[in-house]
């Protein structure tokens, strides 16, 4: 939700407010493994324990939108979040998510997958600006793979989509 608020701040011309959102997300909320809590108290303490992978991806997108490409933010935060996305192994590997953005169900959600792909593409651009071409290439390969497979995960012609391939 904070990503949505921050993008509205950007649209309204309040980039300082949006930058404070980036700081809060990465410096208060982000967990040591690179993920973010489903939600948190104002001080950043996790509240509710589930995981939504769009919430891992959107802070990366927001940092990119604001040109936050400095080495410290990249190494200590963006890289951890992007690596968390590509390395996630829940009931299924990412882009499968334990919860989609509406907190209704687990699985392959088109909106969540889109945010994960966008997060990896933005992380790759930030990585390149920091000279980390190996990570950038890995994240772009993953994003390309997910984009090619999204229809198989999310589309059906005969009722509920239950495929897990």
Description:
The protein is an all-alpha fold and 165 residues long. 58% of the residues lie in helices and 0% in strands. The protein is built from 6 helices and no strands. It has helices at residues 2-11, 15-29, 54-65, 71-87, 110-129, 133-154. Helix 4 packs antiparallel against helix 5.
Key terms for this structure?
globular, 165 residues, 6 helices, 58% helix
Write the layout of secondary structure elements.
Elements lengths: L1 H10 L3 H15 L24 H12 L5 H17 L22 H20 L3 H22 L11
Helix pairs in contact: 1-2, 3-4, 3-5, 4-5, 5-6
SS content category = mainly alpha
Largest sheet: none
Helix content: 55-70%
- Silhouette: globular
According to DSSP, the number of beta strands is 0
Q: What percentage of the residues does DSSP assign to strands (E)?
A: under 5%
Mean pLDDT: 93
End-to-end gap: 30 Å
Return Rg in Å.
Answer: 16 Å
List the uncertain runs: none
**What string, H for helix and E for strand, traces the elements in order?**
HHHHHH
Number of helices: 6
């Amino acid at each position: 939700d904070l990503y949505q608020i921050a993008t509205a701040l950007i649209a309204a011309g309040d980039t300082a407010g949006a930058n404070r959102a980036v700081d809060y997300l990465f410096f208060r909320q982000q967990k040591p493994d690179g993920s973010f809590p489903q939600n948190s108290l104002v001080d950043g303490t996790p509240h509710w324990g589930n995981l939504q992978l769009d919430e891992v991806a959107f802070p990366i997108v927001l940092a990119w939108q604001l040109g936050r490409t400095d080495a410290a933010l990249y190494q200590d935060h963006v890289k951890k979040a992007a690596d968390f996305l590509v390395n996630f192994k829940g009931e299924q590997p990412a882009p499968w998510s334990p919860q989609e953005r509406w907190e209704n169900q687990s699985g392959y959600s088109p909106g969540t997958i889109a945010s994960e792909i966008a997060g990896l593409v933005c992380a790759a651009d930030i990585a390149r600006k920091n000279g980390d071409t190996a990570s950038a290439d890995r994240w772009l390969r993953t994003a390309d793979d997910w984009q090619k497979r999204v229809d198989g995960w999310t589309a059906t012609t005969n009722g509920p989509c239950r495929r897990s391939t």
